[in-house]
């Protein structure tokens, strides 16, 4: 069994050794200075993050799914990122899924012992019918969580792609993965409290993975979330603004186009820019793998040929 002192995230931070004796403002400054290190740790592994995005987007394009697997804070962060994909990018609920040791109830009440069983990681993925088309991202700050190791090991056996997000070098979860995204954030302000810097770095990486993947799947035009699902008043207004910004149309024209496109911003934009029907816009988007930019380029080329 590995001693806690040997784990990078469990070491004592000399910069916060007297944090209990300083003013509240200095306390916060210490925390803030340490938080800056999380961004630097993520920056150091950007090439590997880019490789992970290409790996994930390739599998999802070919019909695969993305699973985030973790326990405690790491598991909650994965569930959070997965839950944000459907409203932001109109993905199906099964495309990106978050699995946390101990099940859904562990999102709200800690079940620390659930992470210690490797077989549970395997079981949760087995229940999801994991295949070689899928991608499994294992999150573990220490890099040694049995639940995550079990999940990644099983994923490899099934031929699925595997990615680790951890904060401790040369870790077991990294060894189980095709790509090891190790953000070396160093010792926490409060020793072992990996919901702090390690959690911040993991959240930043998840933001990059999901956002980058959705861009690569054609769900972004420029920097506009053109696949947003307008399920409430705020998102309906956002969809209108997106259509207006992308097409240069008036508010009334945006409302009319969205009405014709069943509330979908992407075809509404194509309809307005190319002056075509909803059915034709959908057909052209499908031929362009859902990319508005490719759709417009193809239309421009066709016009030039004619």
Q: Mind explaining what this structure looks like?
A:
The chain has 306 residues and is an alpha/beta fold. The chain folds into two domains: 4-216, Glucose-6-phosphate isomerase like protein, domain 1 (Rossmann fold); 233-305, Helicase, Ruva Protein, domain 3 (Orthogonal Bundle). The chain has twelve helices and five strands. Strands 2-1-3-4-5 form a five-stranded parallel β-sheet, sandwiched between helices. Strand 1, helix 3 and strand 2 form a beta-alpha-beta unit. Helix 1 packs across helix 7 (197-216), helix 3 (72-89) runs parallel beside helix 7 and helix 9 (251-260) crosses helix 10 (265-274). It is globular and about 65 Å long. The termini are far apart.
């Amino acid at each position: 069994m590995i001693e806690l002192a040997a784990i990078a995230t469990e070491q004592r931070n000399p910069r916060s050794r007297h944090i209990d004796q300083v003013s509240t403002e200095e306390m916060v400054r210490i925390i803030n200075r340490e938080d800056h290190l999380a961004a630097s740790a993520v920056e150091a592994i950007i090439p590997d993050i880019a490789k992970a995005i290409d790996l994930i987007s390739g599998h999802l394009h070919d019909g695969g799914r993305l699973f985030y697997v973790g326990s405690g804070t790491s598991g909650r962060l994965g569930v959070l990122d997965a839950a944000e994909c459907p409203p932001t990018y109109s993905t199906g609920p099964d495309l990106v899924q978050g699995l946390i040791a101990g099940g859904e109830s562990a999102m709200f009440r800690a079940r620390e012992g659930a992470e210690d069983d490797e077989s549970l990681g395997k079981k949760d993925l087995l229940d999801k019918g994991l295949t070689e088309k899928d991608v499994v991202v294992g999150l573990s700050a220490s890099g040694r969580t049995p639940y995550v190791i079990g999940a990644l090991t099983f994923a490899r056996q099934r031929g699925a792609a595997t990615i680790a997000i951890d904060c401790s070098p040369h870790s077991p979860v990294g060894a189980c993965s095709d790509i090891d995204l190790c953000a070396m954030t160093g010792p926490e302000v409060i020793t072992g409290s990996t919901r702090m810097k390690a959690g911040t770095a993991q959240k930043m990486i998840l933001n990059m993975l999901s956002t980058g993947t959705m861009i690569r799947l054609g769900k972004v035009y420029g920097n506009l979330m053109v696949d947003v699902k307008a399920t409430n008043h705020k998102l309906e207004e956002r969809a209108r603004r997106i259509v207006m910004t992308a097409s240069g149309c008036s508010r009334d024209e945006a409302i009319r186009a969205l009405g014709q496109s069943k509330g979908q911003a992407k075809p509404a934009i194509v309809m307005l820019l190319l002056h075509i029907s909803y059915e034709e816009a959908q057909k052209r988007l499908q031929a362009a793998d859902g990319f508005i930019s490719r759709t417009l380029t193809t239309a421009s080329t066709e016009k030039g040929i004619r």
